[in-house]
Amino acid sequence: MPNALDVKNLRASIGDLQILNGVDLEVPFGEVHAVMGPNGSGKSTLCHVLMGSEDYTASGDAAVGGVEVMGMAVDERARAGLFEAFQYPTEVPGVSLDDLTAAMAESNPDDSGYQDRADATSDRLAMDQFRNRYVNVGLSGGEKKRSEMYLLGVSNPKMAILDEIDSGLDIDAVREVAAMVEDLRSDDIGILVITHYSRILRYMSVDKVHVMVSGRIVESGGSEVAEQLEAGGYADLQAANDSLTS
Fold first, then answer.
1. Is this model's pTM higher than 0.70 or not?
2. Adjacency order of strands within the sheet including 67-68
């Protein structure tokens, strides 16, 4: 059985600036993984390249549920089962969440389950009061992340990339978002949480933590890796990586 996500030797650059230097990563179905790393390590670039951003020149392989997505347009990657929850969710004046999910259903007529998933996810995440409001307009940071989790549940992807979903949240909102991620976990989806800090990982069951330094994964392990990083920082890993590449 293929993994939810298989990444092999992924490289990416902008102009002469090389950012990803051969990323290898596997996220099995049913598991939640995290990618941690210092600023500038390539975490968000990894997310953008996987989602098909045209800002980068990229090479390597990335498969979602066994389907190669490199070379696909953004909408094709979404239909292949790839989803991104944004660090800074976009406001969409004039379009409600219900309007958005209706458009999602219309664009994918082979999937007849959108309305049922919308109602079920709304009940699970207590979203009824938000569904007729314009997408993310006038919402707090925590409410915007709740909206992202709702769209994740409705989309029913094979692989979800959550790009710094804890950014800008107070501790109560971090706990709430972590609980939503746990609630949406299933054997039919892989989840990759990209984060600077270990605090959100304390409130969810993370199967593996990957550490990214200078555009590559330099260490992988259990949740203890995140706690070690919280205590000691990235300096030692950065120095070790620099010595190997110098």
1. yes
2. 17-27, 5-14, 57-64, 67-68
Please list, in sequence order, all residues whose beta carbon lies within 8 angstroms of the beta carbon of residue 13, skipping any fewer than 6 positions away: 19, 20, 56, 57, 58
The pLDDT assigned to 77 comes to: 94
- Kindly report the backbone phi and psi dihedral angles of residue 100, in degrees, each rounded to the nearest multiple of 5, phi listed first: -65, -45
Q: Mean pLDDT, consecutive 10-residue segments, the chain of 246 residues?
A: 95 95 96 91 93 95 97 92 90 93 86 88 88 92 88 92 86 86 91 87 91 92 82 68 54
Query: SS3 of 41, please?
Result: coil
**Tokens coding 14:** 């902008």
CA 45 vs CA 41, 53, 84, 234: distances in Å: 9, 9, 13, 19
Assess contact for 25 and 5: CB atoms under 8 A: yes
All domains in the chain, ordered by first residue: 5-245 (3.40.50.300)
Give me the DSSP letters along 209-237.
Answer: EEEEETTEEEEEESHHHHHHHHHH-SHHH
Short-list 18, 72, 21, CA closest to 50: 72
The HSE-up count of residue 9 (CA atoms within 13 Å, CB side) is 3
